[in-house]
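Quick one: structure for this chain?
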Amino acid sequence: MSELVRFSVSLESDLLEQFDRYCNEGRFATRSEAIRQLLRDTLTTHAWESDAQDAAATLTLVYDHHKTHLAEKLMDLQHQHNDMVVSTMHIHLNHDTCLEVIVLRGRAGALQTIASELKGLKGIHKGQLVLATTTERH
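Got it. Here's what it folds into:
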């Protein structure tokens, strides 16, 4: 873990009021915790846009398992990208609906591509990709 560094920031009073509301609603312990989270989110987005070399992600899919050939298409796409698919977890939500969480690792852009392919299949009700960079903090 790196050394804690203090710095100051100047803000307009109305912006600070909005930020304090954000901190309260988000139940952050301190303003510093909220700023850390915002910075991490922004840096992760930047890594995504710059196609970070080593990224990890989860892709959560909710789908109708009765949709013709959907399960086979999901599995085929995962096998085609077996260099990026680390693990999957499959959950039966009810008689008709399944939730699948796919853990991915690779270049950020490639992860977005496979996620788009999977989310775009007919019968997918919801798909959400969450990216995490694996770059060490110094």
